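Researcher: Good morning. I'm working through a list of sequences from a screen, and I'd like to move beyond sequence-only analysis. For each chain I'm collecting a predicted structure so we can compare shapes side by side. This is the next one on the list. No need for commentary yet; just the structure.
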Amino acid sequence: MSQAFVNASVKPLESLDMLSPHEVERLQDRSDSGVYPLFRQCVLAVLNCGSDMDSTREVLELFKDFDVRITVKHQGVQLELENAPASAFVDGEIIQGIREHLFSVLRDLIYVVDELDEIGQGLTQTDQITNLVFHILRHADALAPHVRPNIVVCWGGHSINRHEYSYTKKVGYELGLRGLNICTGCGPGAMKGPMKGAMISHAKQRVQVPRYIGVTEPGIIAAESPNPIVSELIIMPDIEKRLEAFVRLGHGIIVFPGGAGTAEEILYMLGILLREENDTIPFPFIFTGPDGSEAYFEQIDRFIGATLGPRAQSKYEVIVNDPARVSKRMYEGLSAVTAYRKSVGEAYHYNWQLHIPEELQHPFEPTHENMAGLNLHMDQPDYLLASELRRALSGIVAGNVKEPGVRAIEQYGPFQLDGDNVIMRELNTLLEGFIEQRRMKIDYSAYVPCFELACD
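Model: Good morning. Structure tokens for this chain:
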């Protein structure tokens, strides 16, 4: 079936109705160093809401004739869209939620570029990066001071099956009954389900201002277009700052079944929780899935135990097929978070005290050289090994769905990973399990591994 396209002019409803000529010029700079390619890709991802494609390349190829221009008239800012996906429109009018997301993209890209220029690209200090994440979230009006901790971050795969997706909705429903808000990576699957479930219970409980926060970054947004339930879309500069935004903004985390990206998120969080500075800071961390997901979590738990050890396994709780219990445990955990922050005078809206190692903050570029140079050996602190394993999984995600990673694999072949035999064997078992369970991509039948492991 042929794809339908639309040309349209779109104005913001309320926010961001003024831009300087300098800002417009930067957004329309089509050079290799300009912002336009990034802006175009993010706008296209928003317009392509509801897509079942998880390949940035496929999205860009399908809409290769798409273009977006910014015009500034006396009425304010206007986006001129050419050959946009028709699914973003109803009777010639753009869907309101998509309109909001378009200008969230514009808001964040302008602000982040200006902030990075002001602070400088050479961010070397932990507090500078944490401060940048705070500024981006504050600029997006995502921080709500004086509100009891109630934001639950939900991680999980975009390519989950219907049974698992239904379970994520049930958990979201239970969270919503308890007045808790949802923050996810903004895409489909386990990112959409909790929001959808919470919408129903928020309506039942007459929650006046429910929050469905989606946090993404330019490299992944085209492969995981924002789902239509997201009411607050936030674009972070890169995957590392996206992950930090989750743990600074959220008050607890629930992990549903997923693939390499979900494993990356788990390892990121363990790299934080394993730091001694964070031992006394409560942060509920729960893994859950429906009946039939026991093997998945056994596999994850085995990998963590074999590589990072029992201390890492003690940092999370596994609950299978019990949405009400998951929600109750999270609610209890958030009560502990509230009590702790009261006792130490910590802000409710941003977790300043949590120490995030620099190894987890600086962007990792998954080139073949950098992937081959990862320190996948046991003779290092557990939090550092967690960081290195996180980078390995991040590179595999890039090779699966991100355009630069896919292009690098085509040019140079699979990423080569080497390290201690025990780590390589366990990593191979984990990744093979993801492939067998069809968790690497939505189009699993055509999946070709983008990695090779040096295993005995």
